[in-house]
Request: fold
Amino acid sequence: MSFFVAKSGIVAGFLVTTLFQTPAAPPIKMGLWETSSTVKMNIPNLPFMGPRSNKVHSCLTPESYAKGMATAQQKDCIHTNVSITDKGYSFDLSCRGGKETGRFEMIFDSPEATHGTMHLSAGSSTISDSTFTASFVSTDCGGITPDKPQLVH
Reply:
């Protein structure tokens, strides 16, 4: 369920993890989804980058949903306090031996809409804050495949 494209949509791959905790059926519709995200980055020793927004179309299938649940763990990162219910999905994140930490939360507003946030920190400094909304478009994904989301703008 990767609604996001890496870097500008830092939430990529974080939308789903831990297969054993998933509801029996996905709480959202399968098909074409449109996700709008805004990321505010503040990386030490780099010039401030203003908020970056993008819109992505992605195809969600039962297989891609299950695969995402099983493989979304990031290298060198540990997910704790994972909660996946029919109402939402959340977890805490600790990367690089605890040097980077974060919190991800997604609310399933309905089978056709979600929204959420992700916050990442390094020590007492914020690295990024992200917000997103996603909405179901169609059961037909057209030419978009689950492994190749399409940047809209």
